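Following up on my earlier message about iron/sulfur cluster. Here are the inputs again, as you asked, copied directly from the submission form:
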Amino acid sequence: MKMLPTVIANLFGKAATRNYPFTVRDNFEHARGELINDIKRCIFCGTCARKCPSQCLTVERDKTEGVWTLEFFACVGCGVCVDACPVSCLSQKTSHRPVAVERAVITLRGKMPERPAKKGTPGE
Ligand code: SF4
Ligand code: SF4
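Thanks, got it. Here's what our run produced:
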């Protein structure tokens, strides 16, 4: 009987929790979520891979093409790579990647930036 007022208040009062997953909370304005690489601007310098504390980034390159790979299940969303990128091609959404049951990686490919011609190169 002592609990009755509380039970009645909870039955007819406003819900204290959301009906997840049918009601999803809005993202926080500065939340660090899904990592995005605008690969057209990436110069494949490898700085993000060297700085990443989770070692979930890999950058490979040859003379013409670069490959940027993110093992996104290992990413902790710290944003270190975003801050370190010299051309600001990395960003983070405020939302998180949807849950998945299979481990996967994201592989993006792009052209290597052209190097400026050296001074005194024949044909200049
Ligand atoms: S730091 Fe930026 S430019 Fe360099 S490889 Fe990473 S994403 Fe590309
Ligand atoms: S957000 Fe952090 S953990 Fe994720 S790739 Fe960037 S540096 Fe690595």
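One observation from looking it over: The chain has a mean pLDDT of 92. Hope that helps, and feel free to reply on this thread.
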